[in-house]
Amino acid sequence: MNYRVVVLVSGAGTLLQALLDAERDGRLQASVVAVGSEMPDCAGLERARTAGVPTFCVPMPVLLARDSAARAAWDEQFARAVERYDPDLIVLAGFMKLLGQPFMSGFRGRIINSHPALLPAFPGAHAVRDALAAGAKSTGATIFWVDDGVDSGAIIAQHEVPIVADDDEATLHERIKVAERDMLVHTVNDLAANRGKVIDV
Question: Where is this site: Raises pKa of active site His (predicted)?
């Protein structure tokens, strides 16, 4: 039985592409069965279509976050869209929305995320900028289980990336992404090898 992965994206989809390339080349011990987003024009969705992977989108209007009832309804709708593909694992690959309880209740323990810092240092949306501002000598990437907090789940894997003297946010982030891509492929393979393992988060 194949290990089924649904990938959620919000932007360019470079982490997604790493998984798609690995699957194409026979290096991924899993199948990306669908790619979803809350952004209709997300470039990551186009990457999936180019690879022949089914896509779905449940748009989230900007003002939705201010209405808790509407936000919960969106989470439920998004969860139903994911559930159609019966995933063993959900990978947040540059997915920029926090998932609420209606989603987490259905998939808790099956969701991983990648973050461009060595958690618990520099959580949040500006991790690379924050590491530079703090004068850190190194940072890196972390893959972790998603829980109810912000970048607070149990750590699965980390890779350190040194910060060099002439780094700016763009150059440092690009080097971190290189580490993230390789680490994500290895992590999905490791989880696929332990099929059926759902953790308590």
Answer: 151
| Binding residue ranges for (6R)-10-formyltetrahydrofolate | 71, 96-99, 113
CATH number of the domain that residue 96 is part of: 3.40.50.170
Instruction: State if pTM tops 0.90.
Output: yes
Burial 119-153 (b: 16+ CB within 10 A, else e): beebbeeebbebbbeeebeebbbbbbbbbeeebeb
- Annotated binding-site ranges: 71, 96-99, 113
Question: In the chain, how many domains are there?
Answer: 1
Q: Please list the active-site residues.
A: 115
pLDDT tens digits for 155-182? Answer: 999 999 999 999 999 999 999 999 999 9
201, part of any domain: no
In a domain, 200, yes or no: no
